[in-house]
Write a structure and sequence with these properties.
Blueprint: H1 47-60, H2 72-83, H3 91-94, H4 101-117, H5 121-125, E1 128-130, E2 133-135, H6 148-155, E3 172-176, H7 182-190, E4 195-200, H8 203-215, E5 222-226, E6 238-243, H9 250-254, H10 258-261, H11 276-285, E7 289-298, H12 303-309, E8 316-320, E9 323-331, H13 332-335
Parallel strand pairs: 3-4, 3-6, 4-5, 6-7
Antiparallel strand pairs: 1-2, 7-9, 8-9
Helix pairs in contact: 1-2, 1-4, 2-4, 6-7
Length: 336
């Protein structure tokens, strides 16, 4: 039961369980309907019963799964666990546990709201998990599903393959387009001695980010700024800049499923070719990096466009379990 993401760049591998084999049912616009008959809570007894029933409802309704879950079974398990106040990792332990009548009624109500409203599941329960950590979300921010969390573990840890050396030596990190603040929180855990600055142009998003920073007890280490990319930072420099900016191109925006249209357009729309914000980050990042470090940036499926626009830059493309060439790394020296 793990959290993933949308047409912005593909599903996110963070925390996938044994049940998370991916399927990609098509999404249709308009009011969702289902031929799967409704059931009384008494007909469903265990957590697994509710998950299988929910998965059938979701498939029949042709829901889109792009916001932290990869397929109908994983999303169903996520919603059932949230209703029962269980961490997603606990589902397999309690799969055959009996559900009370009152709990069953709450689960069925939540499943029906997912089908009828087509809202992302994370908005319905105001929660998403990244790398096993819970984060508060609502309609003021996109549902986080960045690959950067996994890449921090795989390419920025204290081993021979690290791109930045010892994480303990990183003293400052900037998270651009922070949204809900999840990457800033993950960075604070990964770089234990770093101060984290996080910037977003949306005041609404920063209210959500502030809640997550507080929930994780990071007020002393994470500072939030409202502004347009680097503008509120003056001439500050950072050992590491991370960013998951808006990068959906015009064609992608026009084809967004109904679930994704519930998210703030400002956080998704990257302009005609998806690179409006990415270009600005590349053009300005060099002036805000310390030597020997670099920029980690997610751009979805925009590699061809980016390499055509910046043929001189030695971009290193980093893959994850479920993504290929959607995130790049470039050293500070190459941006100077």
């Amino acid at each position: 039961m793990a959290m993933t993401r949308p047409p912005r760049g593909g599903p996110n591998p963070d925390g996938q369980s044994l049940m998370s084999k991916r399927a990609k049912p098509a999404a249709k616009r308009g009011r969702a309907t289902s031929k799967v008959p409704k059931v009384a809570g008494s007909e469903l007894r265990t957590l697994l019963d509710f998950v299988l029933y929910a998965a059938s409802r979701f498939v029949e309704a042709k829901l889109a799964f792009a916001h932290g879950t990869t397929d109908p079974v994983v999303e169903a398990a996520f919603l059932v666990c949230e209703t029962l106040h269980l961490h997603p990792d606990q589902f397999e332990t309690f799969a055959m546990a009996r559900v009370t009548e009152a709990e069953g009624a709450k689960i069925l109500d939540l499943l029906e709201r997912r089908v009828v409203t087509r809202k992302p599941a994370a908005y319905l329960v105001n929660k998403i998990y990244m790398r096993g950590l819970p984060f508060y979300v609502d309609e003021r921010v996109i549902v986080p599903r960045s690959f950067i969390g996994e890449l921090l573990d795989s390419h920025f840890s204290a081993d021979d393959g690290s791109l930045i050396g010892d994480p303990a030596e990183i003293e400052s990190v900037l998270d651009l387009c922070t949204g809900s603040g999840c990457l800033a929180v993950l960075a604070s855990r990964h770089f234990p001695n770093a101060q984290i600055d996080a910037v977003d142009i949306s005041g609404d998003a920063l209210e959500v980010a502030a809640r997550n920073v507080s929930d994780h007890g990071l007020e002393e280490r994470v500072t939030l700024y409202r502004g347009d990319l680097f503008k509120p930072l003056g001439d500050r420099r950072y050992d590491l800049i991370i960013s998951n900016p808006p990068y959906v191109d015009a064609a992608g925006m026009a084809a967004l499923p109904r679930e994704c249209r519930a998210e703030p357009k400002l956080a998704l729309d990257g302009g005609a070719d998806g690179l409006d914000i990415v270009r600005r980050i590349l053009d300005e990042a060099g002036a805000h990096l310390t030597p020997r470090r670099g920029l980690l940036c997610e751009i979805g499926r925009g590699r061809d466009n980016l390499e055509a626009a910046y043929p001189q830059l030695p971009l290193l493309w980093l893959d994850t379990e479920d993504s290929e060439a959607e995130v790049f790394w470039i050293g500070a020296a190459d941006l100077a």
